[in-house]
Amino acid sequence: MDTLRDAPSPFPGTSGAYGADAPVEPSAGRPPSDIAALTEQVRLTSAFVDQVFTEIGKVVVGQKEMIERVMIGLLTGGHCLIEGVPGLAKTLTIKTLSQTLNASFSRVQFTPDLLPADITGTIIYNMHTGQFTQKRGPLFANLVLADEVNRAPAKVQSALLEAMQERQITIGDSTHQLPDPFLVLATQNPIEQEGTFPLPEAQLDRFMLLIKVGYPTAADERVMLDRVSGQDQAQPQEVATMEQVRAARKVVNSIYIDDRVRDYIVHIVQATRRPRDYGLAELAPLIEFGGSPRATLCLAAAARAHAFIQHRAYVTPDDIKAIALDVMRHRVQVTYEAEAEEVSSEDVVRRVFEYLPVP
Fold first, then answer.
1. 24, 86, 138, 241: most buried, per Cβ within 10 A?
2. Domain containing residue 297: CATH number
3. How many structural domains compose the chain?
4. Tens-digit pLDDT profile for residues 131-182
């Protein structure tokens, strides 16, 4: 997966795009005692994350970035859209995660003939009793895999996205709350567009992360071959619970973000909307629409979760850079001119990070 880690910075006094010479420490505006207590709380509540990663690694070879980002989505309640060619362990990763957390899991194979009631639920008439009964759909689960979401028609996609946003479903005249945590992990195939219904930009914005999954390395693929050839296939064990995830979410929300880092997040998103104001006039003809306000909120939330996974009680520019492309790539829309010049939204985001000074 593409990263910004090695991107150079045009500003003196910074080491690459991260500004590693002067990391932001959690000192301004927060008493040291609070930081010490929060650090200990993060250390205790984040211990299960390493156990989950280890357990998933027994089944899924490689794909560490995808696994980490799915965990970020789970810790923040942000839904994920996973894009990659078939056979890259997208479904296996999500199913294995549910097994390690003892979470309820459902998988929906989206097809062109799917109806909204097929995923939300419906009312069924019982001829024997003469009464109507409700049948809940597969969305009533902690982890929902919406496989090949772009193959379903617009009505089904809208029903899914409404459930994602409202965290509730109405069946007949009654409304039901979805389980907590509730996370939708949708997949789509980027190489096959025949018979698909691409998600509109407004619906893409509902996904916190757009995760692009690449092919495994030769070493990882050899390990896969050896594992499949073995007699005993590894089975994931439950190492955490939904209660731990809910507790972790509260701690993630309290991760400290310095005022300078907050300003940095805002300026990143603002620069995609008004590039000329930030000295990036060459990007103006290439950007049709910049990141929405949801991009700002998601970037901060994802950075907090990334710091939590690293067992840190505060956010640094490293956390923002690590997750930036996944948050921004589907929220920055490029013009036809950019497409003609083969400039992608990821290229635009990289340029913004290269130019903006790091706090």
1. 24
2. 1.10.8.80
3. 2
4. 888 888 899 999 999 988 888 888 888 888 888 888 988 887 788 899 988 9
pLDDT tens, position by position, 92-126: 888 899 999 988 999 999 988 899 899 998 888 87
The pLDDT of residue 26 is above 90: no
Structure tokens at 169: 């479903």
Give dist(CA 16, CA 350) in Å, integer. 12
3-state DSSP helix/strand/coil percent for the chain, to nearest 5? 50, 15, 40
Q: Counting beta carbons within 10 angstroms of the beta carbon of residue 340, is it exposed (0 to 12), middle (13 to 18) or buried (19 or more)?
A: exposed
Structural domain of 218: 52-227+235-250
Residue with the two structure tokens 């899924």 = 60
H or E element, residue 248: helix 242-253
* 272 and 239 share one domain: no
3-state secondary structure of 23: coil
Alpha-carbon gap, residue 292 to 205, rounded angstroms = 8
